[in-house]
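Continuing from the previous page...

OK, I double-checked the sequence for Serine/threonine exchanger SteT against my notes and this is the correct one:
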Amino acid sequence: MKQQNHLKRSLGFFSAISIVIGTIIGSGIFFKQASVLQSAHNSTLAISAWIFGGVITLAAGLTIAEIGAQMPYTGGLYVYIEKLYGRILGFLAGWMQVIVYGPAIIAAVGGFTGILIANFFNLNDSWRIPLSIGCMLFITIINFLDNKVGAAFSVITTIGKMIPIAAIIIFGIFWGQNNALGQTISDVKQSSGGFGVAVLATLFAYDGWILIANLGGEMKNPQKVLPQAIILGITIVLTIYTLITVGILRFIPADLIERLGEDTTTYLATKAFGNIGGKLLTLGIIISMLGTLNGKIITFPRIVYAMAKRNDLPFSSYLTYLTPKGKSPIVATIFITVLATLMLVLFDPDRLSDLCVFTIYCFYILAFFGIFKLRRENSNRPFSTPLYPLVPIVAILGGLFIVVSELFNDPAGVVLFLGIVAVGLPIFYYLKRKEKTSRNKAIEINENHD
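Thanks. Re-ran it with the corrected sequence; updated structure tokens here:
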């Protein structure tokens, strides 16, 4: 399978920012309103949690933008951690994203999309998993084509998702009868957590901002485009999320949101715009989530590709295969989709997604500390994080806040996920030993031949 393995640099600023916004805005903002409110216990703290989650994400984005501008390669966090801390931690960062984080997030978004499509056509629950798998396969096939096709789909769905978002914001804020602030839910569950858990729930909705870094090797002028896309994209999403939350709380009382759970946004759409209008709004949300699914499926295979290029995964020679014309990592894309499908069928993707936020923030914090290391080593920077060192410190403290909150909220889940990450170590040593053995055999053959 010999070929010129080079990804094509064809993504510009608008494609990049569409991927950032399209990847972030998906199921979280529509499905996490009730869980954030349950943990926060009142509407003021719920709105604060969405803002706080956005500020943490923006500080993280500004910090990573400086690091990413100095390392504009395919692989994102996997590459950053390796260059900052060495091969073993770099491998674990990639392993975590490839085996757990990426497939679980894709499964979660695919699962939520399947639920909405089943509700849209009034189908029973038995259709949820087939529809979810169908959505993932559809997006996977799109990404078999030239990377411009996937990027164009991101642009279209990003524009399309703004229609239901604008409708919810405008109708909720201007026609809602409630005060968005000061509402308290009467039925507080003992296991609902606190403000830290509420922020953690918002971070699933903000998830995806760093995935654009996985496409660094496919961008035109990545040193300039990558920081711009990350910063502007996160700022836009933070504003949208705050306005959507205020709009929903203005239109639906906090107690009712808590009871409706994942059906909150569908209820608002139907009540505000009637059955037909509600259906159209739900269709817009489905398009939004397909765009998010596309963002995940277009980016995670690039981590697989980057790791396979280094022989860091089994069957690496196959996983590095690129289509001759479009230069798309087709085998890596199939690999991620298969893992996501297995997770969707066998596990609860919702809980997996929450724990994935904890797991990836462990590696985010390592990357945030890396900015201080790079500042000491390199004075030439294509992009400098503003308000340094305050912004990186906010990112680190925010990340520690999330990690500690989840440790107290779900210690068993934390141990499980850290265990899955640790399993990568023996695999890493096995692959390296196998690579060393093959190299020694090749040397021996050459010596005998001579």
